[in-house]
């Protein structure tokens, strides 16, 4: 059964699957179809799509409840279908699903896709494409800055998560929520909850809940409790989907995901870490984040460039662009590759080994050079970035990481005139 209605010039197609009473949405805005719904909706969906006009399909992720009709649409409408690059190899092949998922949603045939970049144009509008992994590695959200409309796929669903699918990452979901909460939106279009007029408040509520939940899990774990014991304490209720899915969905996965990521973070120093840093200059000053924490030279403030860890399969130039977008909400372009810095240091009696690829970058928006400070969002914390002169960096009591970066900065030629 389908219900079709409109909110904020968005056609909302609500599919209700009879066997399980499960609900999933697809949306149509400005000729762009967002998701295709489950295969079990196909007969009803054919009739609705015949009444509508669209030029392209954008998928929030590869799961079959969102892509189940993509192959049929491609065959009958010959429109391009876009997905995050990490989802392309998955949708190139027919989906293979356990019986309960086939009963709920149906199957998903293979189809061809084009890779999403960080922008996509509908008929008259430009949309930001925001990578929001956690529920799935290829998950994206879509945002239209002028209207404030935000499409969140499966990132939200409910403010208090009780069960998750095996393989989901609670920490990455939190990071993705924080990323979206830097955007100026209020309402949300969720692929399972539909139109949420108070979407910002609900996303904030979910983030607060997950942060509190993870704190409880880790405290119990540090106190010596096993994952099973923690699960029983925090989730005493048994949810029907656990048995129905044969454990693929379970609240236990929230506990084990949290503990696994905590253990991984603790052991990170046991292997080298590759990251990418962006040097953004204005005259003889560099945009640097200031942190106040313990570091390898002691306690107190220190500076570091915007940047972060390179994800598996991610080109380093993509990393630096992603980090600027995630941390300060700014679009940048690469000027040049500068060098690599290898840094081995000791912190809290542990040896760390970082290999940093350094790029010179510049803002795409010229007006950002007039901004004195920038809010930096990372790992649930907010710090500040500001322009710091080379003269200040050369002072004895100024700490800049990674070691060796100051020498690189001194060797760079003066920036172009419009960045002075």
UniProtKB/TrEMBL annotation:
Keywords, sorted A to Z: Hydrolase
Domain of life per record: Bacteria
A GO term for molecular function: hydrolase activity
Domain Nudix hydrolase: start-end pairs: 270-411
Classification via PROSITE patterns: NUDIX, NUDIX_BOX
InterPro entries: Metallo-B-lactamas, NUDIX_hydrolase-like_dom_sf, NUDIX_hydrolase_CS, NUDIX_hydrolase_dom, RibonucZ/Hydroxyglut_hydro, Sec-metab_biosynth-thioest
PANTHER family (alphabetical): ENDORIBONUCLEASE LACTB2
The protein's name in its UniProt record: Nudix hydrolase domain-containing protein
Native species: Planococcus donghaensis
């Amino acid at each position: 059964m389908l219900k079709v209605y409109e909110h904020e010039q968005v056609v909302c197609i609500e599919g209700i699957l009879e066997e399980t009473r499960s609900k999933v949405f697809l949306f149509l805005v400005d000729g762009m179809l967002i998701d295709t719904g489950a295969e079990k909706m196909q007969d009803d969906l054919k009739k609705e799509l015949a009444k509508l006009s669209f030029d392209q399909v954008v998928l929030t992720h590869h799961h079959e409840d969102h892509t189940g009709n993509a192959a049929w649409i491609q065959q009958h409408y010959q429109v391009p279908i876009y997905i995050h690059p990490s989802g392309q190899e998955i949708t190139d092949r027919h989906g293979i699903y356990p019986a309960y998922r086939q009963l709920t949603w149906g199957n998903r045939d293979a189809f061809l896709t084009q890779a999403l970049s960080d922008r996509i144009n509908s008929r008259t509008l430009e949309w930001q494409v925001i990578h929001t992994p956690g529920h799935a590695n290829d998950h994206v959200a879509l945002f239209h800055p002028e209207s404030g409309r935000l499409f969140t796929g499966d990132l939200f669903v409910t403010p208090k998560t009780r069960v998750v699918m095996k393989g989901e990452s609670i920490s990455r979901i939190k990071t993705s929520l924080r990323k979206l909460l830097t955007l100026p939106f209020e309402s949300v279009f969720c692929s399972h909850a539909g139109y949420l007029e108070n979407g910002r408040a609900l996303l904030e509520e979910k983030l607060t809940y997950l942060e509190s939940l993870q704190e409880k899990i880790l405290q119990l774990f540090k106190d010596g409790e096993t994952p099973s014991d923690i699960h029983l304490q925090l989730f005493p209720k048994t949810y029907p989907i656990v048995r129905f899915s044969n454990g693929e969905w379970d609240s236990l996965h929230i506990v084990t995901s949290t503990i696994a990521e905590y253990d991984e973070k603790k052991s990170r120093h046991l292997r080298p870490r590759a990251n990418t840093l962006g040097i953004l200059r204005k005259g003889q000053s560099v945009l640097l984040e200031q942190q106040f924490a313990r570091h390898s030279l002691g306690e107190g403030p220190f500076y570091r460039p915007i940047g972060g860890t390179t994800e598996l399969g991610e080109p380093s130039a993509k990393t630096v662009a992603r980090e600027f977008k995630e941390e300060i909400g700014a679009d940048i372009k690469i000027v040049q590759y500068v060098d690599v810095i290898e840094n081995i240091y000791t912190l809290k009696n542990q040896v760390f080994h970082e290999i940093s690829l350094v790029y010179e970058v510049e803002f795409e928006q010229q007006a950002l050079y007039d901004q004195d400070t920038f809010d930096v969002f990372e790992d649930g914390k907010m710090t500040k970035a500001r322009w710091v002169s080379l003269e200040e960096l050369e002072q004895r009591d100024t700490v800049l990481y990674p070691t060796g970066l100051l020498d690189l900065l001194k060797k760079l030629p003066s920036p172009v005139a419009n960045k002075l």
